[in-house]
Amino acid sequence: MVPPSSTPPPNPQQIQQFLSSVLSQRGPSALPYSEDTKWLIRQQLLSLISNYPSLEPKTATFTHNDGRSVNLLQAEGTIPMPFQGVTYNIPIIIWLMESYPRYAPAVYVNPTRDMIIKRPHPHVSPSGLVSIPYLHNWIYPSSNLVDLVLHLSSAFSRDPPLYSQRRPNPNPNPSPSPNPSINSSMTSTYGQHPPPPGPRVAATAAAAGYPPSPYGRVQHPQHSQARPTSTDDAAEVYKRNAMNKLVEMVHGDIIGMRKAREVEMEGMFSAQAVLRRREEEINKGLKEMQDEKEGLEQQLQVVLMNTDVLDSWIRDNEGKIKNLGKKNNNVAVDEAIHCVDVLSKQVLDSTAADLAIEDVVYSLDKAVQDGVVPFDQYLRNVRFLSREQFFHRATASKVKEAQMQAQVANMAARISHFVS
């Protein structure tokens, strides 16, 4: 038998607190749902209770076919079923299995003691398990509990799954029965097609405090109800067990594959980060090499220009050296080098005067040390020579600046020549 279910909250606010509490539990008492789906489970149950207040969320123990017991969420109560212009209430239990909401829940019809499951029924097995196309075609995350109840109501309205049974009246004295559905319901057998439940059955289902359904799970043989069985039922149970086992195996394989793919993706992301860092280093090194190449090309242009200048100078002065050598083997230094322009001659004269003054000052220092020149005369001569040396140095600096500008203009002209 099913253990007593936990008492559900009586109002929407307490329902929210109840679901938040049971879904947030950790440790051994935690519900066996995936953490990334608990929020969706809570929202779907709240939406279901909002649309169908007759259904109540609970937690109860579900026993699998292999004997495993697990604590799961369920929605227990009645759903409306329109039939021939009248709305009836069908008691059901919706079990949210461990794989929910990625896989469909398990739905059981939960008849009261005054009801019997219709046999045969296209959507309800003798054990109460409901099978409709919406459950077989369950698609995560678009499928939900509200649409499931709508499809259940539509399927049951075409062929009601329950009908009431007549019970003998223990009271021999005829008296008005407090439950009109029991006295007025028709007697039926499993081999007959009984009439659908009437309004009296709906009243009974809504008013009766029906106990936990024995159809909410597959019982062990020692706990099974004394109900007629058949070979078809055993085959169906075996088929359902095999399908459940296959689904669990496939689900486990999918989880394992997903974890393996996640590990591979993490490794790929790490490798991608390393490759990006190496790409940045390579791009940086390539830019440095390009800058160095540009600098070397500029230096090469300067060397080529200087080489051209030296070649031109050698060609211009080679004949002069030969002529001087023919006249006299002793070449005069002053005649061997001539300034090419006025600026060069001015720089040469200023530099020569600067160096000559340096020699004179050095000689005066020696003379003062030897006592040949008086100290006051030494100071006057050094002051005069220093003033003259300053003017020569200033002149040489200005002339060199003018020569540098002329050289830059000449280099620019030569660069255009080499580039073309």
How would you characterize this protein structure?
This protein has 420 residues and is α+β, with helices and mostly antiparallel strands. The protein folds into three domains: 12-163, Ubiquitin Conjugating Enzyme (Roll), CATH 3.10.110; 238-337; 342-417. 55% of the residues lie in helices and 10% in strands. It has ten helices and six strands. Strands 1-2-3-4 form a four-stranded antiparallel β-sheet. Strands 5-6 form a two-stranded antiparallel sheet. Helix 1 (12-23) packs antiparallel against helix 2 and helix 9 (342-370) runs antiparallel to helix 10 (375-419). Residues 1-9 and 172-231 have low confidence and may be disordered. Residues 221-232 have a biased composition (Polar residues). It holds the Pfam family UEV. One of its GO terms (molecular function) is ubiquitin binding.
**What is the helix content?**
55-70%
Structural class: alpha+beta
What is the H/E string? Answer: HHEEEEEHHEHHHHHH
Radius of gyration: 54 Å
Uncertain segments: 1-9, 172-231
Report the top-level CATH class of the largest domain: Alpha Beta
* Name of the CATH superfamily of the largest domain: Ubiquitin Conjugating Enzyme
Euclidean distance between termini CA atoms: 101 Å
Q: What multimeric state do the chains show?
A: single chain
Helical segment count? 10
For the secondary structure, the number of strands is 6
Number of domains: 3
Mean pLDDT comes to 78
Strand content: 5-15%
CATH topology of the largest domain: Ubiquitin Conjugating Enzyme
Assign an overall shape. Answer: rod-shaped
CATH architecture of the largest domain: Roll
Numbering strands along the chain, what is their spatial order in the largest sheet?
Answer: 1-2-3-4
Reported for the largest beta sheet, the result is:
4 strands, antiparallel
